[in-house]
């Protein structure tokens, strides 16, 4: 009887062992493949250097420009290598990477010129545009030509295009210059109708952030402040682009009646209007522009276009990080307490970065880049206190203001030994406010 059961059990026993072997074999294969993939990705990240042909640097920016992008350059490059052109949908570009690439390219013998293709560029704040413009001016002054090519140009796109030796515009295109403006929504009447009581505590005459809950229109102080900075920013924009186009600001952007008369003279043709107004140098089709670029940079049979290297494929050279160093800490976004969120400036994370720089003996100074509208009082004080500690530790602090350093953004800037702002930086808004909404009248009206 025992022998009979052994005869029946043996096939099941060997079958089970075979299943275990197959399972372990497949699992081992999976682990080996995973390790190969990880090693391949690491090698791609550390050693990927895209081929660069002799020709133009194509500044084909996609998305917006920020002081610090979420996606690192090497991971972005890896995505382009693995996923192809579809991965080029970059939403954020590092301001400092772009400027560094332009400065390296001007002395690179493979780069013979620059082509600005900005149709997918969504914009940046004025100080960022001015910083890139400075790098474009340096590139142009090195003797290498810059060409701007566009179906149309927004104000931000045109600001960069104005640095080009020659600006091309498509026949159906336009240059959309309309000035700067600001507007706000006001909720006082709405809150009254909803029977919501708003208790607002405010310090500072020009602290207008709480006004939407207090009024149904803009106060004179807020209007004066906004009119001043908007007007100055637009005039600064005109001064720069007019100088780049070698005309006066009045010639570049005359009075509204003069603009209308010019538009009527060309029968509403926006491209011809831009040409007549000297905003662009030539109105031409895509094929005509490609032919002109081919004459300058040569033809690439492989890609069926003129020779060019995308700014995203440019092999940027990074400086060595050995010996004495200067820490660059970027404070970007609204200042908040609690967990870190994308687009916000977390006080604990930023304070820890400052503390690490203070305790690192190789860090000899700190550049603190601020681009913030303010935020939490306690969070701002956490960052400011850590900067004070760094300064007391004999670490010089240079505050570099970007597009905005207002309210709490200005407060965290005060410990700096030196504060540097762009002519287009929006700063100030000094003061504090707190809002408490209560709904006892609303609840009473509905029987609660």
TrEMBL record:
All residue ranges annotated as the Peptidase S49 domain in the record: 139-284, 390-448
GO biological process: signal peptide processing
Keyword list, A-Z: Hydrolase, Membrane, Protease, Serine protease, Transmembrane, Transmembrane helix
InterPro entries: ClpP/crotonase-like_dom_sf (IPR029045), Pept_S49_pIV (IPR004634), Peptidase_S49 (IPR002142), S49_SppA_67K_type_N (IPR047217), S49_SppA_C (IPR047272)
GO cellular component: membrane
CDD domains xref list: S49_SppA_67K_type, S49_Sppa_N_C
Molecular function GO terms recorded: serine-type peptidase activity
Highest taxon, organism lineage: Bacteria
Transmembrane annotation, as ranges: 21-43
Pfam families: Peptidase_S49
Protein family: Belongs to the peptidase S49 family.
Name of the protein in its database record: Signal peptide peptidase SppA
Organism, as annotated: Candidatus Palibaumannia cicadellinicola
């Amino acid at each position: 009887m025992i022998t009979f059961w052994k005869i029946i059990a043996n096939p099941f026993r060997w079958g089970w062992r075979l299943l275990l072997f197959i399972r372990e074999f497949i699992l081992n294969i999976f682990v080996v493949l995973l390790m190969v993939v990880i090693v391949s990705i690491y090698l791609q990240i550390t050693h990927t250097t895209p081929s660069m042909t002799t020709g133009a640097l194509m500044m084909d920016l996609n998305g917006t420009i920020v002081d610090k992008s979420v996606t690192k350059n090497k991971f972005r490059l890896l995505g382009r290598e693995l996923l192809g052109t579809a991965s080029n949908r970059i939403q954020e570009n590092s301001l400092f990477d772009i400027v560094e690439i332009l400065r390296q390219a001007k002395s690179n013998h493979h780069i013979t010129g620059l082509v600005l293709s900005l149709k997918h560029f969504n914009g940046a704040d004025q100080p960022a545009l001015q910083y890139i413009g400075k790098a474009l001016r340096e590139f142009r002054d090195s003797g290498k030509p810059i060409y701007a090519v566009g179906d149309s140009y927004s104000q931000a796109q045109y600001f960069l295009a104005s640095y080009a030796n020659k600006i091309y515009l498509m026949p159906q295109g336009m240059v959309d210059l309309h000035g700067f403006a600001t507007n706000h929504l006001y909720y006082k009447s709405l809150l009254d109708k909803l029977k919501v009581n708003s208790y607002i505590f405010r310090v500072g005459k020009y602290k207008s952030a709480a006004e939407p809950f207090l009024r149904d229109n803009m106060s004179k102080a807020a209007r004066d402040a906004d009119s001043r900075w908007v007007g100055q920013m637009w005039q600064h924009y005109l001064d720069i682009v007019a100088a780049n186009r070698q005309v006066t600001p009045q010639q570049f952007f005359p009075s509204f009646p003069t603009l209308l008369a010019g538009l009527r003279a060309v029968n509403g043709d926006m491209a011809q209007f831009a040409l007549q107004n000297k905003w662009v140098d030539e109105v031409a089709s895509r094929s005509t522009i490609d032919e002109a670029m081919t004459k300058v940079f040569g033809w690439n049979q492989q890609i069926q276009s003129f020779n060019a290297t995308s700014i995203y494929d440019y092999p940027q050279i990074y400086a060595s990080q050995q010996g004495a160093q200067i820490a660059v800490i970027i404070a970007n976004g609204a200042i908040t307490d609690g967990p870190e969120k994308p687009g916000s400036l977390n006080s604990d994370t930023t304070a820890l970065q400052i503390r690490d720089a203070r305790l690192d003996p190789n860090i000899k100074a700190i550049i603190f880049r601020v681009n913030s509208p303010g935020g939490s009082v306690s969070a701002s004080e956490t960052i400011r206190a850590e900067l004070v500690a760094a300064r007391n530790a004999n670490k010089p602090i240079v505050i570099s203001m970007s597009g905005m350093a207002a309210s709490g953004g200005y407060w965290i800037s005060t410990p700096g030994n030196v504060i540097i702002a762009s002519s287009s930086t929006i700063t100030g808004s000094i003061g504090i406010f707190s809002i408490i909404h209560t709904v006892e009248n609303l609840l009473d009206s509905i029987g609660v």
